[in-house]
Design goal:
Blueprint: H1 2-25, E1 43-44, E2 55-61, E3 69-76, E4 81-86, E5 91-104, E6 113-116, E7 120-123, E8 129-144, E9 150-151, H2 157-168
Antiparallel strand pairs: 1-2, 2-3, 3-8, 4-8, 4-9, 5-6, 5-7, 5-8
């Protein structure tokens, strides 16, 4: 008896899913959104500490709004490196074009794992990572806003000297 119940649930979900997909295919529903790649407007992604050359575009939602779902695309030139950083919220990444080499954790010398077009990565909130790009590369990032990229930076020499002065007092 329990077995039939569990078999019936997936069948019911499949039917509901098929009906829902049919409605989307017909363009029905308040949440239907279609975005053509040629309509995307790419802008420079400028962040202190990042080298120039990265572009991004908003596909859906507002990546700056807290609690709102968003989809963005990021375009990197061949050889680009994103230094060690974190995001305060989890993000899901799909590689659309090119190849990225991803290093997880605080050790920037750790072995990098390669991901290519079609691959998917989910990175948890505050998980430190860094990226190197091979070939012109485009990724699509899905998450819940706000989207933030927080770079790890080395302490400034002036700050270290100042700290030493305070300790001597």
């Amino acid at each position: 008896m329990k077995r039939r119940r569990w078999i019936g649930v997936p069948a019911a979900l499949a039917l509901v899913g098929a009906v829902g997909l049919t409605a989307l295919a017909r363009g029905q529903g308040d949440d239907f959104v279609a975005v053509r790649a040629g309509d995307l407007e790419w802008v420079e992604f400028e962040l202190p500490g990042l080298e120039p050359g990265v572009q991004f575009t908003r596909v859906h939602g507002d990546p700056g709004a807290a609690g709102e779902l968003y989809v963005i695309r990021v375009r990197f030139p061949d050889g680009y490196r994103v230094p060690l950083h974190v995001h305060p919220n989890a993000e899901s990444v799909t590689i659309l074009e090119g190849r990225i080499l991803l290093g997880m954790g605080l050790d920037e010398d750790a072995e990098l794992e390669a991901f290519e077009a079609g691959d998917f990565i989910h990175i948890g909130a505050a998980d430190p990572h860094h990226v190197r790009v091979e070939g012109d590369t485009v990724i699509q990032v899905h998450g819940v806003g706000p989207f933030e990229l927080i770079l790890f930076t080395a302490p400034q020499p002036a700050a270290q000297e100042h700290e030493g002065e305070e300790e001597g007092r």
